[in-house]
Amino acid sequence: MKQLTVDEMKAIQLEILDVVMKFCDEHEIKCWLDGGTLIGTIRHKGYIPWDDDIDLGMLRPDYEKFMKLFNKENTRYKFVCYELDENFYQAFGKVLDTQTVLYEPDEKGTKLAVYVDIFTYDNVPDEKEIIDDMFRKRNKYYICNVARQARIFQRPKGNFLRRLCVYALRSVVRIFPKNYFVRKIIMNSKRYVNAETRLIGNFLGVARMTCDKRVFNSLIDGEFEGKTYKIPVGYDEYLREFYGDYMQLPPEEKRVSTHIFKAFKKDD
Question: Is the per-residue pLDDT at 154 higher than 80?
């Protein structure tokens, strides 16, 4: 296999993005550029210069429809998520290019393929106490899931006391099935799936984000890497809720990728 450079991996991500967006248009599924990809669209008209992934967003009904249909009509590209495969280790979904292999962080870690992330936005009531409780539980389950997925003797970061706590947590969570906490994250996110609410939130990622549904009432065009893709009509309100002053560049020492991986193109 040929190891991919970051630029070659990004080119494959853009191919996945085109496939997903075309599929969503054909099946009337509302899908938009999300998170850091949306910031990149507004601020840079492409990738944030130090970023190396693509995020998409959907409301829960669209996500469920996408989940049911996408793999029936695609062979090279595959949608993976916990709902389709209980061995999957994250609460949100990914569309993979099966002609590639990607390891996070390396060959000893998780084996995937070059991917695009898809996050789901779920209903949440207005009450601050409920929102705080949902994010608190999400954070707890997320920490436990990271600990459960890690190799028990893999050296954690930090001082001796922190490392000792991490080792202890890894030992405790071993009593649960491997992806137990993934299911708990999803169940927490879907707590109000059948309720009529004004707000929605992202309870599957790691950031704290809620906003009014009207942000996603319609989608408009945004430019990303020389092409046009859909973004929320209320993108400014969304990004300010998520990131604050998103047009302000972060300090230079924080302009680094948070991902560690090795990606390869399979031999023909």
Answer: no
Rg of the Cα atoms in the chain: 19
- CA dist., res. 33 & res. 86, Å (int): 27
Number of residues that make up the chain: 268
pLDDT of residue 15: 98
pTM above 0.90, yes or no: yes
Q: What are phi and psi of 242, to 5 degrees?
A: -80, -45
DSSP 119-172: EEEEEE-S-HHHHHHHHHHHHHHHHHHHHHHS-TTSPPSS-HHHHHHHHHHHHH
Spatial CB neighbours of 60, under 8 Å, sequence gap ≥ 6: 120, 121, 122, 123, 190, 193
Q: How far is CA 84 from CA 10, 91, 225, in A?
A: 26, 11, 31
Q: According to the model, what pLDDT value does residue 254 have?
A: 86
C-alpha to C-alpha distance for 159 and 212, rounded to whole angstroms: 41
Measured CA to CA, the distance from residue 102 to residue 195 in angstroms comes to 39
